[in-house]
Amino acid sequence: MRKVNNNSSLQEAGEPKEKISNAELGQLGIDDLEILVNFSRVANGLLKHRVMDKTQILANLEALIDDPMPYALKKGGKFKNLAEDVIALRKEGKFVKQQRNTFELKKEVANFPVWGLEHIEVGALAQMKTAIQLPIAVAGALMPDAHQGYGLPIGGVLATTANTIIPFAVGVDIACRMCLSIFDLPAQAVDTETDKLKTILVDNTYFGMGCATKSYFDSSLFDSRAWGETKVIRSLKDKAYAQLGTSGTGNHFVEWGELTIAEGALDGIPAGSYLALLSHSGSRGFGGAVADYYSKIAMTKTKLPAEAKHLAWLDLDKDEGQEYWIAMNLAGEYASANHHEIHNKIARALGVKPLTRIENHHNFAWKEQLADGTEVMVHRKGATPAGEGVLGIIPGSMSTPGFVVRGKGNVTSINSASHGAGRLMSRSAAFKTLDRAAIAANLLDKRITLMGSDVDEAPMAYKDIHTVMAAQHDLVDVLAKFEPRIVRMADPREKPED
């Protein structure tokens, strides 16, 4: 659960005072008088002190009643004592959750295409089958890098009715994206100027959950009126400003590498090998807070069976749907500006302007049309847009190549491709099974200079990128190959947030 401090209140000064009534709490299924009093005290205390707004408090309480354990285990959490009360009552058999009205899933599982089926885990397939059974689902597809996630699997593409949007099908890191700058410098610079390039990365990149920028290249995005559109956005503006130009944790990176471009592949750039800069990150704490807030509202508004609860949607014809749509699109602009800030600072330090820049989202929702003209909302959660002629970047791992691609516009895949190699094993499995000496040997063999990272991001934790690319030859054309050489990621002690 995200904590919002008093300086980032979602309820603003001057607004009318609200109260959460016992009747509203009773609708959550609270039928024990003592518990009702405790819930009312905590809920109205949070409201009074403007820690959260009413909708968020009720969403957290409903989530707590459904599954109290995460709240009970959260040290210092605002709902910890309530969660412990609920657990105690359940043990006594005294607490019964009120039955919820749910939307039914479709009884038939519609067919959906899968690329690289033999390399996709059962859990990801099961999640996609559940998603395609949603009453709002129109079409779906699964990319060859797919693996299990929350709600929609990573590598999942889901088209829903045009007026609906699923926060968890967009992803927690809204607008997570790739950005590539190509410089008119020889690729050999990664060997001849290694120390200089390392220093530039260290001086101009910031990693970690709480990291903040020390100076700005261009913060003009914050002049946009969009930052005043909703209470949620206004409350997060300061956090977003502080984190502009930062990269977070987990699989986020900024790296130098060798880019080999095929003849005639990229307009205006001759074939050859170039020094290039590649980055991977998203909308940071701003996008994470937006996702947390509206996913809980969606699960309150849209009641679904337990196996589908993370696929709850918002209606774009309702206030909360419009608010999320505005916030998601602003997060997209912010994520792009975030990458530009990083690349511009590094280009300035290098003393060379890039020849061109290529970039794309791979956690987002777009209003599109299917081949038959049907208007839909296309959710790509860990999937690269691959409409005809659309450029994108598909990375491998820290020691395997990534690729600049051009979409073929395959309508069966809903104009999509993979967003990377995809995880072969979970982070916990990587820590249990991978050998640090073997990882070091791999990096030495591939001539990789690594700053930061840990075992869970080792090359062996990912699928073979060549196998993934071969499985989607009908989705994209390869224009260039990027070989990572000098890689910077978050320190090992940092908790992954991707």
Describe, in plain words, how this protein is organized in 3D.
This protein is an alpha+beta fold and 498 residues long. The chain folds into two domains: 6-92, no CATH class; 177-488, Alpha-Beta Complex (tRNA-splicing ligase RtcB). The chain is built from 15 helices and 16 strands. The longest helix has 32 residues, at 319-350. The radius of gyration is 23 Å and the shape is globular. The two termini are 16 Å apart. Mean pLDDT is 91; it is low at 1-16.
Blueprint (SSEs and pairs):
Blueprint: H1 22-26, H2 33-48, H3 54-66, H4 69-73, H5 80-92, H6 122-132, E1 137-147, E2 154-161, E3 164-165, H7 167-170, E4 177-186, H8 189-192, H9 194-204, H10 231-243, E5 253-261, E6 272-281, H11 284-301, E7 314-315, H12 319-350, E8 356-361, E9 363-369, E10 375-381, E11 383-385, E12 391-394, E13 402-407, E14 416-418, H13 427-433, H14 436-445, E15 449-451, H15 465-471, E16 476-488
Parallel strand pairs: 15-16
Antiparallel strand pairs: 1-2, 2-10, 3-7, 4-6, 4-8, 5-6, 5-16, 9-10, 11-14, 12-13, 13-16
Helix pairs in contact: 2-3, 3-11, 9-12, 10-11, 11-12
Keywords: GTP-binding, Ligase, Manganese, Metal-binding, Nucleotide-binding, RNA repair
Protein name: 3'-phosphate/5'-hydroxy nucleic acid ligase
GO biological process, one term: DNA repair
